[in-house]
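The instructor's notes for this session suggest beginning with a concrete chain rather than abstract definitions. Hand out the sequence below and ask the class to guess, before any prediction is shown, which regions might be ordered.
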Amino acid sequence: MSAPASEGLSPTDAPARQATFREVFAVREFRPLFGTFLLSTAGDELARVALTVLVYARTSSPLLSALTFAIGYLPWLLGGPLLSTLADRLPRHRVLIATDAARAVLLAGMAIPGMPLPAMLLLLFLVSLGSPPFESARSALMADVLDGDRYAVASSLTNVTLQLAQVLGFVAAGALVAVLDPAAALLIDAATFAVSALWLWATLQRRPAPVHESGDGPRSLWQDTGDGLRLIRRSPRLVAIVGVLWIATLFAYAPEGVAAPWTDEFGKGATELGLLLAANPLGVTVGGLVVARLVRPDLRERLVVPLVVLSLGPVALAGVAGLLLGPGSLSYGVVVGLMFVSGLGATWLIPLNVSFVQAVPSAYRGRAFGVAVTGLYGVQGLGALGAGLAAEGVSAGGAVAISGALGLLAVTPMLVAFRRTQGSVAAPAAGEGPSGA
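After discussion, reveal the predicted structure:
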C-alpha cells in the first residue's frame, strides 16, 4: 500500500486558468525533479521487496519482515521535523544531491556479501534518514521553479506517478527478486540514487539557502512546529481532518507489513508478492484519476466518508477471505482483487487534502502541513510494524483482518467529527501575528 505523496498536502492555491502537462514539462528544472523522483521510487520498491524476502528467508519472522518495511517510515516519526529544516537552512539543490549520493553509498554497503542482518537494518535506517530532508527540499524547490497552477498540476502528476512507479516497482521487483540475488537488487537501487544525484547536479540551478525573515530573528524548528501543533489542537475541524488522515493510514498499512508471510500462506513466491503489493497502488492510480477528472469539486468532500470505509473494509475482508479459502490461487486472486478495491477507496486523500487547505489560514499552512506530513509517515511505519507484531501471535491473514476491522472502528468518531465540522476554518489564538509569535 503506497504512501501518499507529500505534494498532496500543498499550500499552493490554484488560479482560475488550468495549466497543462506540456506547460509543466516545459520548465527545465522540473524535468530532473520529476525524473529522479520516478527513478528513485521504482528503485526503492525493488530494494524493499528484496529486503523483505531476504529478512523473512533468514529469520522466518513476520515481525522482522514487517520491521524492514517500517524502518523506511520511522525516521519521519523520530526526526522528521528536525531533518526537514535542512531544506530551509542549506541550499536546496545541495540537500538533494548530497542525500542521494549518501543513499547510493549506503545501499551499496548493504549489498556486501555476508553483511550481518543487524548491520543491514542499521544501514537501511540510515538510508531512510535521507527521506525527510530530500522530500522537503524537493517539494520546496518545486514551488520555487513552478508558479501558479503549474505547481498544482505538477503535484497531481507526481501523486499519480508515485502510484504507477510503485505498481511497476513492486511487479518488477517480484519478478527480479525471483531470478536475482537480493544483493543485486540493492545494487540496482544504489545505482538509481547515483544516477539521480548526477542528474540533479548537472541540471539544477545553484540557489542560495532560503533567507529567514522575522522581526524576532530566525525562528527555531521547535517554535514553528509548536505553532502548527497548537493551531491543530485548537481547531475541531483540523483535529477531525488530521485524525482521519492518521488513523485511516495507520490501519491501512497492515498488508504491507506482513506481505511476505501473507503471500507464503497462499503458497506463493516472490513474483506473487510483488503483484499483491502492486494491487493497492494500482487501485489508487485508477481511483485518483476518476476522482480528479470525473467528480465535480463540490461533490468530492462528500465522498470522504464512503471512500474511507471502502479503503478499510476490503482490508478486513481480504484477511478473512484468505483464512476461509485457505492456500491456493483462488484465495490469492480474491485477496489481490480486494486490495485493488481498497486502493480505489484510498483516494479519500484527494478531497481530504482540499478540506485541509480550506481550513488552515494561509500564514499557518506550512507549519500545519509539516505536522500532518510527519505524522502521516510515522503512522505508516507504525501500522506495518503493528501488523507484524500481531502476526507473531496469529497468522498474517489474521493480522490483516484485525487491522482492517479495528481501523473501521477507530476512524468512525473522526469521520463523524469531519462531517459535523464541515465548513469551519481554524483561527490563530488572540494576539498571535502571522508568524505565530
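Then share the key points. The chain has two domains: 21-207, 219-423. The chain has a mean pLDDT of 77.
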